[in-house]
Amino acid sequence: MLGGADTVRALVETFYDVMSEREPALARLHEVTPEGRVARGPRDRFAMFLIGWLGGPQDYIEHHGHPRLRMRHGRVAVSLAMRDAWLRSMTAAMDAHGITGEVRAFLDARFADVADFMRNVDG
Ligand code: HEM
């Protein structure tokens, strides 16, 4: 419904571009380039994950094993502020790619649920 893997990759690029430009505290939790932009590694891993998570090829699980998202975020302090910064970045990226209607409503709800589930520090 989203247009396949290439659309998801383009969405993920925009997501991390928005994060790098507008949410520096969140961007800095990731591997960044000398210019402070989220690096290629996190972008490629998240894109591979998202393609599989949305019903595409399960390459992420083949390459990295089960996502175990809470475990993989264990070393990251995911606060309320970081959750909201993550959701703002994804909302801006989905707006930029004109994702609307049923699939948008589905993604808004799923991302909000999973982002909240990632919280692992108070406040
Ligand atoms: C709620 C706020 C969130 C924050 C602050 C956050 C932060 C991060 C950071 C800093 C990394 C890099 C970890 C590393 O380099 O070891 C990461 C990786 C990742 N995140 Fe998140 N994340 C959030 C929400 C989410 C959500 C909602 C999803 C899924 C829908 C997600 C999926 C992933 C995946 C798949 C990876 C790559 C894991 C790997 O293969 O190493 N994250 N996240």
Can you walk me through this structure?
The chain is 65% helix and 0% strand. α1 crosses α3, α1 packs across α6 and α6 runs antiparallel to α7 (101-117). It is globular. The protein has a single domain (5-117), classed as Globins (Globin-like, Orthogonal Bundle), CATH 1.10.490. It has helices at 5-22, 24-27, 40-53, 59-64, 69-72, 80-96, 101-117. The protein is an all-alpha fold. The protein binds protoporphyrin IX containing FE. Protoporphyrin IX containing FE (HEM) is lined by residues 26, 29-31, 42, 45-46, 49, 64, 67, 69, 72-73, 76, 78, 82-83, 86, 111, 114-115, 118.
What value does the Rg take, in angstroms? 14 Å
The total tally of domains equals: 1
Query: Which sheet architecture does the biggest sheet show?
Result: none
State the distance separating the first and last CA atoms. Answer: 36 Å
Percent of residues in helices comes to 55-70%
Strand content: under 5%
Order of helices and strands: HHHHHHH
Q: Based on the coordinates given, report the CATH architecture.
A: Orthogonal Bundle
